[in-house]
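Lab meeting minutes (informal)
Scribe: AK
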Amino acid sequence: MRRRGLIRSVLAGAIAVTVLAGCSSKDDADKPTRDPVVAAVAPAATATPAGEVTPSAAIRDLLADPGTGILATITDPGTTVVLLDKATGATRTVTLPAAAASLSLGKPGEFLIAVPGKILRVEAATGALTEVKVDGDVHAAALRADGDLIAGLAGGKILVLSPDGAVRETISGLVSADAIDTSTDTVVVLDRRQTAVTELNLIDHRLGLTLRAGDGAATMIGDHFGRRIVTDTAGNQLLVYTADPLVLRQGFPVGSSPYALAYEQRSETVWVTLTGTNEVVGYDLSTGIPVEVGRYPTVRQPNTVTIDDRTGDMFVGSGTGDGLQRIGADQRKRGQ
């Protein structure tokens, strides 16, 4: 019986300690920054995408609600979200007050959309939209288990908000706040401009430990084990962290320009898109040594990916308008 859980690699631990020592001063005015990494431009597709592809405008983001299975899709120019009920085929289009910066899960049956000056709460089943006003350009939004909202602003400020938008805490010190994970009590933030991950000390209203995230980190997700998984797009690798305290557990090469991430809980597999080769690749992280469990050709420029937890179906979105791809769970099982 294979062991499930977190690895404790001597090498990863050594890397974590070394990087932490180099990031110990958060008051340093000379923080090294870079332009935020973006998805690498994909070549023309050379293989037929796996599964089924339906026409779509260029897809900026997509996410499946785990309870209803409803798929939210944001396409260029980012001012509408389309809610697709895959069981019935019915769609509902919701007009947004501004272009979306990010899409995330809220309470059961709800999506959160970050736009300048607001967090939008969208009901998956009805499309009902509620605006939570925020003083700043919101790049990322997340919901805590206690109902508070976390807003990450373009300038790096973090706001902890009550459900109605009242500011409970303000935490400064990052250069940008581009992704927020609240899968455990310890909130972790990805700063693309510093290519770093930072845990928040909400008790003392300040930043906690910070670790470097490769050469150019792009996206971050959490899983039910409390791991934070990050794509180092510039360094062509996946990084796996745990928090409280923040430690780098795994770092391994995955191919050309990894970008989007999705976690499949039923098989404990992380899926990563490779825009450099128009592929999506799955890795089992449970043994401490990442094991590739699937590799499939995708639509061109696979900038987004999500898993429908109810069916196990995977959806990949093309950033160039080449369509929305569905790779069924049964097809992936046959391909393994």
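Next up, CB showed the second protein from the same session:
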Amino acid sequence: MTATTQKIDAADAAEGSNVGGMLKDAIAAAILAFLLCFPIIMLHAESDNDGNLFLTWRPWAVLIICALAFGGRWALSLYQARPVVDRPAAAVAAPSTSSAFIARYIGAFGLAVLIAFPLAMLAAFGSSGSLKWIDSYGIQILIYVMLGWGLNIVVGLAGLLDLGYVAFYAVGAYAYALLATTFGLSFWICLPLAGILAAFWGMILGFPVLRLRGDYLAIVTLAFGEMIRLVLINWIPFSGGYAGIASIPKVSFFGLSMRDQPGGFADFFHIEYSPIHSKIFLYYVILALALITNFVTLRLRRLPIGRAWEALREDEIACRSLGINTRNTKLTAFALGAFFGGLAGSFFAVRQGFISPESFTFNESATILAIVVLGGMGSQIGVALAAVFLIGGFELLRELEWMRTLMASVFGIPDFDPAQYRGLLFGLAMVVMMVLRPRGFVSTRLPSIFLKEKKAVSGSLVKEGHG
């Protein structure tokens, strides 16, 4: 037997063992799914008209779930066992010209789509049909895009894990609501004030956690977010408690009210009033705020403070040894991220017209953090794509009538509401995403400084830094 034949036999044996191991893992996943689903899905209690309970068997539902678990684990094993082609180190280290070209034009195309979105919805569905799309999809997604970009400064650029970001969102919302209802200030005056107040609370949070890192920092920020929510619940003369604050003034267009009243927007321009006017105006307001957040973040990344954030994210000890003031660096990250969270909160208050502490729970912080992680920490385009995927997907679940029919016919659940199971689908999407792309949609974190080789006059190679 030759050496080549021995190598082939060894490779076949290794491949056979891998297939056997993958088969065992897939069978184990199917058995685990069966054990979990047997008492919950296979046996279902129902009641008749007389109130008597009886059990119904749904074996097909359990078999389908076990088959999905088996196929999913098998596909995951095949993906992990795929051959990986090593790329040259230079190709990994430096971004290619084509990737930069694609990223630039993706951003330009996305901006054009965002600007034309309300007009396209009006042309496709009319005034009444486009109201839901502009409000539930356009405005809602852009709010979370702005929140994701604000948290991306703290988590993605500075590397500080913040689980209480919803606190600054709440501070901005309540700041606008109290200033507008108590002192009668307009939205455009309260907007920067709400951002400044949220930034102030961001610095208050930053001081106690200057020496904390990792899990300890996450626990303290989580506690801070819960403290703000509990204060809003119990300080009834200030916040109204669970009753919240109602009748919050709406935003105006250069002093023109968007409501159906004399001297309003429609009356001034001599057009017929429609509720779509207010939604389109709100859409472009939040779009402008989100673009300002993106512009400021990209500009700051090229400044010394942005480079200090990146250095802090990579290695805090090395950052301190280089003479960078880590205290000021952390405080600026917390303050700026909180500032944009406060702006988003004030817009949320003016859009809803009513706020309560129940709108600012930990689930909001978890959703915003998931958007940053899934999109790719430090990536602006990735965060925007993750917000579209998560928030848009949640809204689509409310309208999946075919899923209700499927669950009623196959699984025997007549009153199935897909929106109630969005947490399950959300967790499943995160698991799949972390397996396929552990660093998010856009996993490339481009530094703010690139080293470019250039030939000197003497013919030797020197490297120059370009900001």
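CB comment: Residues 2-75 form one domain.
No objections, moving on.
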